[in-house]
Prior knowledge:
By secondary structure, the chain is of the alpha+beta class. It has helices at residues 3-14, 19-38, 67-77, 125-145, 209-222, 246-251, 265-269, 277-290, 296-299; strands spanning 42-43, 45-49, 54-58, 62-66, 88-92, 105-110, 151-163, 168-177, 184-192, 197-205, 223-225. 34% of the residues lie in helices and 23% in strands.
Amino acid sequence: MTRKTLLAIALLAVFPLHAQEVEADSNGENAQLKKFMDSLHFQTGDVAIAPAKAIIHASSSYQMLGAKDAQRVLEELWGNPPDSDVLGMIVPKNAGLMGEGSWAVVLSYSAEGYVSDKEANDIDYDDMLKTMQQQTMDSNIERQKAGYGTIGLNGWAARPRYDASTAKLYWAKDLSFDGSKEHTLNYDVRALGRYGYLSMNAVATMADLQSVEADMADVIKLAEFQSGARYADYDASSDKTAAYGLAALVAGGIAAKSGLLAKLLALLIAGKKLIFVAVAGAFVGIRKLFGDKGSSNSAGPGPGPGGSNGPGTPPPFR
């Protein structure tokens, strides 16, 4: 029995309707989805990310959504809270935004200054993982007290790696949410530049790890800083230097804004349900039945502005 069928049954239990009305609602949802998708402006070729002084070279296999459309997808399509820090979204053409196997890469930027990579070869990521797991367990106590579900950091889905030739750091985490049997894949990339770093965050299910990791190898190459803003352009005599290094980017320390997807993980893997006002009320009544990861009872407030973790306090994960 599919999740959509279960949803229809649950809706009937909460709001008794005739079968024809349920089918009509489904048709109406499909029409709304088509209208929404048709309103998005997908871009290909070289797309500028002005605040980051960067360019995304959207190849024939990928397409880009600008800041406004990316924010609309996150808010209107996937039901996430508004976030003006989102600068765009990379969407694989073979995956799309809805349905099984769909995923996307959300872009944001931190102008915290030049992040030194001098410690790249000295970081003990196994030890870091143990610390992050303990922090996650500790934070769950407070999450439960606040009425939120727990989060599990199960391990590295892909061990952190740093490519000095491109100044890009990437890794992936295996996460789980209270009430969900399916694990979440959170794939992170930090492209370092002269004035800060570009965050590229992909979220999918662990079942998609192989395909996502293969695609991310290409996605990582799509981002490039403009001449003058590249990592190699750094001028130690005049440029701002970040107060942290690579380890903080992975562990989730000071740069909390790059933890954007800590509060977005849920909806991306919860069947990519279309959240429109017409059906939002019904979901409120059945969230507990499904353990809906799109509700605040799953992911919690998340790190960063508006969440429980401010600057200088490592979030449970990022």
